[in-house]
Fold these 2 entries.
Entry 1:
Amino acid sequence: MPEKKRRSVAAYFQVLPTWMVLGCFFLLPLVIMLVISFGQRGTYGGLKPIADLGAYFGSGEFLANYRRSIEPLYLSIYWRSLWMAIVTTVLCLVVSYPIAYYIAVVVPVRFKNLFLGLVVIPFWTSFLIRTYAWMLILRTEGLLNTVLLATGVVDQPLNLLYTDFAVMIGLVYGELPFMILPLYASLEKLDLSLLEASLDLGANKVATFFRVTVPLTMPGIVAGIILVFIPSIGQFVVSDLLGGAKSILAGNLIQNQFAVARNKPFGSAIAFELTAVVLILLLAYAMYTKRKGQEVLL
Amino acid sequence: MSTPADAPRVELVARNVGRLAPVPRPARPVSWERRLLGWHSLLVYLFLYIPIVILILYSFNRSKQTAAWEGLTLDWYLRLFHNDLILRAVKNSLIVAVITTVVATVIGTLAALALARGSFRGKGATQAALYLPIIIPEIVVGAALVTFFGVAQMRLSLTTVVIAHVAFCISYVAIVVRARLAGFDRSLEEAASDLGAGPWDTFRRVTLPIILPGIVAGALLVFTLSIDDYVITSFVAGVGATTLPIQIYSMLKVGVTPEVNAVSTLLLLLTVVLIVIAQRLQQDPTAQGGIKK
């Protein structure tokens, strides 16, 4: 057998187990979930049998879950999720840009990796536990209230935990490095002489920042936005632990349909809508990087 | 790319950033802007570390309810060893993590070997399939798997947890090992086969020793991922298949207890240690690997 063909055959054997696992336990489940999202919940939480398949599809009944998912009640949940994800992303950007700039431009070369490492290390720990740590700080008898009371800033403990404020802190805390790292990557490549040229030509520092620095680091900004926004819109742990009863987000809605309401078809429909949003964003990002010729970060 | 699989996700992003060689910048006078940037950065670092430090400190705090410090104690750690629920959860988590690590590492390494060598039909599709578990939100993966297990009439148990973990961990191994293979000098393999070694001998005695650090790094990453995972596991773990994160979560929903602080601190330490080792192994692909120039 020629060498090239032998290698090719070997490659098939090597990727076979991967395809078996991903095919059976990843792609197939997704397909099944898609099919089930067109079905209806039966009496006992299973699937309702369909008597007449032709009529079911002809009458448009198969889209019932998707139609239900855009009822005002659910739309308001998506709207909240979207809003929370946008605010999280903007906060991350505002907080991350200065520190990314600091590490890329101000910190001496030999300390850069240390400073970057310090950003990454907290994220080696369990997300669950990091979120829990905020419960310790924000709860009524928690650290923040203890400090505020002791210093006399407030005379009654503040209600911090189980609010949108707590969810926002949890989200920003969980996503920060995914903004800092791509921003750093862009700022590291920034040619400072361009900034000097801009200043020499009479632009002030603010104009230089918004008209030279920001456009030049746009690939990092876009990558950061994508990396932060996508997980923010699908999460449910932070809102479940730190948010109040009213802090239901799209992720909680999906989880609830599977774990509590036992309405898998409806839950599947929302899960697919979420997946569609994520894939559209990634596609838009892929097109952006292709146009810009910048490396995709993930 | 969904939230709780942070460690590997950070790894993937950091890996890309790490490829950049830091640019030396000319020294400049310290202006007020730079000082402001410095202060801002300090605040961000405090924001990142304070919650973790608080958690660790509280795990040694004698006080059960308040945030006030009432003296040092190891009671909460000792109590863990008498908490049957936690012990069982730890046992389950270890069983799942060990099996997942072995299976996912073998499968992922094989895929990486195939992907790193030349082209074959379906290579693009394989790469795309491997990226899917990283891209698709974990909650969707969990929901799809529990739906599938329902249709396949598989009872939710530790087995379904292992299956789920293997399915989303293969990708991470494949990516890490492939990165290692990218810096691999193929002429070494050719030399071995020219000198008469068969394909298996070449693999075992040349390729494997060189990529071993990458494989171990991938395995450690998978172990961390598996032992930390809450979202997917919460969907596919049945009654009696409670893993440690599930146990911690249910304790959190009831209320904050010092025991949770203690068990969280231990889990935190374990994951950081494992990833530090994984990191070291991944550094400088040419310097390690048992072949001296």
Entry 2:
Amino acid sequence: MAHLNRKRTVHSMSIREKRDLYAFVGFTAPTFILLGIFIFWPIFYSFYLSLFKWNMISPRKTFLGFQNYRDMYNDPVFWLVVKNTLLMAFFTVIVKMAISLYLASQLNKKVKGSSVYRAIIFSPTFTANVAIAMVWAWIFEPTYGLLRVVLKPLGFPMIDWIHSTSHSLPAVIIVLIWSGIGYDMVLFLAALKNISMEIYDAALVDGANSYQIFWRITFPLISPTTFFLLITGFINVLKAFDIVRIMTEGGPLNSSNVVVHFLYQNAFQWFRTGYASALALILFLFIMFITLIQNRLSKRWVHY
Amino acid sequence: MKKKRVAVVVVIAMVLCLSTSLWAAGQVEQTKPEGPIKIIYWRSLTGVAGEAQEEIVKRFNESRSDIIVESQFQGAYAEILQKLQAGLAAGDVPDLVLLDSPHLQIFAKEGVLVNLDEFVAKEPKNFLQDYIPGLLADSYYNNSLYALPALRSTPLLYINEDMLAEAGLPRRAPATWDEFREYCKKLTKVDANGEPIQYGVGFTMGATTAHWYFQGAVYAFDGKISDENFVVHLTEAPAVAAAKLWQDMVFKDKSAVPSTSHDDLFNKKVAMVFGSTGSMGNVMNRATFKVLPAFIPGQVRNGVPVGGSVIAMPSTDKWRQWAAWEFMKFFTGTDSQAYLAEKTGYMPNSTSASNHPDLVKYYAANPHWKVAIDQLKFVQPQASVISLPKGTEILRQMLEKLLIANMDVYTVMAETKADLDKEYNENFK
Amino acid sequence: MQNNSIATHRFYKIVSKIATHCILLAATITIGMPFVWMLVTAIKSPQEVSIFPPIWWPEVIRWDNFVTAWNTAPFGRFYINSIVTAAAGVLLGLITSAFAAYAFARIRFKYRDFFFLLMLAAMMIPGQIALIPNYVILAKLKWINTYQGIVVPHIANVFGAFLLRQYFMTIPDSLFDAAEIDGLGHMKIMLHVALPLSKPVLGTLLLYLFIQKWNAYLWPLIVTSKQNMRTLPVGLAMIRSAEYAIGPEHLMAASIFVLVPVLIIYFLAQKQLIEGIATGAVKG
């Protein structure tokens, strides 16, 4: 009986288990080594840096303890940036998903040329952000921009979107929605296609109207996709940088500044490496928090 | 007794050996490394100014076989700043770098730039006297020299001369800010719906340039933004007057508009823009109309902040430093400066360059380019606060508050002063 | 009476079909317009660029705008750098992802789930937290301004590993068991069983990764200081600082340089790409 209490060491594993162990380690080592060096280690190093005042130039680092975090708490620009980021994430994701779901439902009706529609609507997904930002900056140009063609007949006065404190964030949101609709639409379309016609037929027989069909049948059945897009969409917007950097540079007066761009400014323009690292850490914690919520909620809300 | 003597002899021998080998090692260090020394020069600016720099590098490399300069374009001044920061953090720096003049102080303070005093000491006695004092002044930190003036500029007013004629204005620049205001009113046009189709002027809001032109306005009102001791004077009458003028032009007269690109001038959206003497080449090339470059308006007096770049040396290796110094002398020397000034519109940085026959001939044939030279007599160093890490950003936000958000002038000036004081106390002292 | 209701029914059908087409057409035009505008602007002359109302087709097509834009910076070199770094990144990324995916799908290990979650956690971490630390690491390795500096930090591709693992798990156990019985080790099983059967997913992943790396902006910007090591997006963003020398028409022309290869790939393979992403993500 004693042998049942033996600790399982490598020596006591069967050949097969040993082979599995070595294979597992060998197969996953490259990935984990790379992740370890370039993803996980930076978190700790960033935390370390966030406790110092360092301008990246001199070898001298001043220990501050948690002063950077206190400064962040008291910095009105930080809170403005947080507000902008959350507004941006919220509006972008909701509007984008609503539009793309609607378009997906239209595409789902067997229409001719649907693959052409789909291909064009999806194309911004693969376009470089730099190019997107540059063409949209030109579209938003108050005097000669394309947007004015649409807005002028509708009676709107000339608005300089990018240089207005009230319109710069909406401009960024518009661009993010524009470039993200395709991706969401494609996923929704796949989810819609997965619903078998029999369910709809049964509902029609029961006398359901289209409103009931959508909310009681379609929507619950696509909930895994909806949830996935909601969470990943939200997190992706939280990480948005390229468009803000190239189109508005966060301005004017931080009206379109978001967390990641603010981080970049602090680290690479204003020599506040410690403060920037603190920002990075806060962003990181917030995203982990959202991911945790996602885990809990997915168990409750998603229907299969 | 014999042992002791032996010991003494051994010790003396050892000391002799040690010192001769040290001396020999010292000698070895003195000899130049074999082959040409290669140094790296980080430069900025594109278009005409970029090409002109490449030409200077080429001429230098052709004239010497013991040094090769490799020039690397690093983007705009702001990008060079980031690159240099990151490079210093990682121990990977160029031998020479073209720095936007306000950035010199930051790096000099941290001791990452070579103090040039010892190099100057090896040159003939009047080496520094040839440089125009107003252009050399901001290359010093703590009374030591850390850079030489490379491509210096002053702010100018670029005017669409055709629009002046169209508006019935004389074909010359406004002499004072008051006159400037009147000009702008006449140069503003609206269409049938009352929407403006042409403004008098576009006030630059660029991240690295917005503050510069405002400094010129404050100097004209006989004030300053800050002094050498970093005391901020923004809340005093001259600065307030300049700020109020600009704000009223945007919101009361509606004859001015915040602008981010010189395209506004080329597109004929505005009749005048502020620009650098350094962009003169490009502006003249791109404009499809007659351009009149002019002084920044005066008011109580004339005064313009010097701008542009200096060339500094982050190099850490002794021989590369020597090579870098040779290139610095060449770049800031008479012939190169005459060439650069002629090609780009940046100012010749020395008296001898200003008097170079090629340049004199060129200015005679193209009188407009002489504007830069003539304005030299009004040149002053820039405000000290722009050397603070966040200094130019704070000033730019001040302009955004004034010209975009239309906030009360006194409030804006007070806030800006508070921000600058804080920045100085926390990050510079 | 019956005739009427059939007619009405048909009428509604046609109307709804037209409505659907209209909606889709409107969406397609809205999404596609900026691309069209980019192209139109790129071939205009400077005077035509700044006119309102805008001109939709220039009088003379200014192909020389492309030449001017190309000459503003060494775009040829940018192309080479983008191709090399994207290709290397994709290849190495696929290899490491495939190995990891296989391990998580088919190798029995007590702590396998823990490590899987650990890997997933990495996917959630925003890249910006790693900017400064990664730069310092690269500098110590003297990898600044090198291809490996651009490529290596982003080789580990969690999304790819996740996707491949999903796919491997759909391959019937019987195939794997048969291979095991034949005495094949894990390496051989992966190479001869798992990978060949995953060609569609691998293809999709390859294209997807390539485009992602092609479009990357922030990291290559930080890692490269030499002009001749820059990639296309970085080069494109940099010519904006030449604002006095070039105008919107040249910026749009340069943008097209960056977009063309990706658009070609996209339109040749979009069906596969779109469907690959749809199936990969929906099962999640």
